[in-house]
Amino acid sequence: MPSIILEARTAEVAVSEERTRLARELHDTVAQTLYSISLGASRILTLLERSETAPVQDIVQDLLQQASAGQTELRVLLQDLRSKDRDQVQGGLTGALASLATELGASATCQVRLALGDEPDIALSTKATLARITREALQNIAKHARATHVDLTLEVRRTEVMLQVADNGSGFDPSDAHPGHFGLELMREHARAIGGSIEVISASGHGTQVRVRVPRQRR
Predict the structure, then answer these.
(1) Superfamily of domain 91-219
(2) What beta strand segments (E) does 41-148 contain?
(3) From the CB of residue 96, how many other CB atoms can be counted at a distance below 10 Å?
(4) What is the residue extent of each domain of the chain?
(5) Using a CB cutoff of 8 Å and minimum separation of 24, what contacts does 20-27 make?
(6) Which value, in Å, is the radius of gyration of the alpha carbons in the chain?
(7) Regarding predicted confidence, which is higher, 68 or 64?
(8) Lowest mean pLDDT among 11-15, 28-32, 64-68
(9) pLDDT confidence of 12, banded at 50, 70, 90?
(10) CB-based contacts of 91: which residues, under 8 Å, 6+ apart?
(11) Could you give the dihedral angle defined by the CA atoms of residues 131, 137, 142 and 147, in that order, rounded to the nearest 10 degrees?
(12) Residue 210 above 90 pLDDT?
């Protein structure tokens, strides 16, 4: 009987954690995009009331781009919710990373350079989580970094697997608070969930490096 109660509580905690993760991802992607679009629409109304129509076309173009990005973010999130770990890394972790790099190059016109070693001998769930972290890092680059080059590196070492996403974009101060943006915290939570660690190195005007390390022992 106690074991049944423990299993029920464990399942309840897992559901609660998943709901929290979903709420954060929705807030940091779709909700933020919608808020930005609403601000742009309000600005257009103000300009029209003043008969200042010159900037309107540029603002509308920007809103269309934001709407398209929001649709992509929502589609990716829904796919993530529906898919299992095996579905996310069907071609292995290296294949998943290569696909994510191709998507970034197509959507953000970045040149992505890959340095992917052998397929790591780690658990399927760990591979899927590393793919999620990479996707989050690449989405941040597409939305905020204004980068022209991205280096995606995967190294299988004796006791660990190291994943690094580095860009030459605008950078930021990691010690500053970023209210309403959960991207970095989500990546940290994902890394902790697989017994790994994450390091973010960045400075304004000097690009960003996101480095994740996980042990090679199967989980």
Answers:
(1) Histidine kinase-like ATPase, C-terminal domain (3.30.565.10)
(2) 111-116
(3) 20
(4) 1-82, 91-219
(5) 21/186, 21/189, 22/77, 22/81, 24/182, 24/185, 24/186, 25/77, 25/182, 25/186, 26/77, 27/180, 27/182
(6) 20
(7) 64
(8) 11-15
(9) low
(10) 98, 99
(11) -120
(12) yes
Q: Which amino acid is at 94?
A: T
93-150 confidence digits (pLDDT tens)? 999 999 999 988 877 778 999 999 899 999 988 998 899 899 889 988 887 888 999 9
Token code pair at residue 92: 């292995």
Top-confidence residue, 65 or 75: 65
Q: Residues 119, 81: contact at Cβ < 8 Å? A: no
The torsion angle over the Cα atoms of residues 78, 83, 84 and 87, rounded to 10 degrees, is: -130
CA dihedral 126, 128, 133, 139 (to 10 degrees): 170
| Tokens matching residue 36 | 């930005």
How far is the C-alpha of 218 from the C-alpha of 215, rounded, in Å? 8
Q: Render pLDDT for 169-202 as a digit per residue (tens, 0 to 9).
A: 999 887 775 544 457 777 888 899 899 999 999 9
Burial string for 69-80 (b: 16+ CB within 10 Å, else e) reads bbebbeeeeeeb
DSSP state letter for 118? S
The 149-156 sheet, strands edge to edge? 111-116, 149-156, 160-167, 208-215, 197-202
Type of residue at 92: G
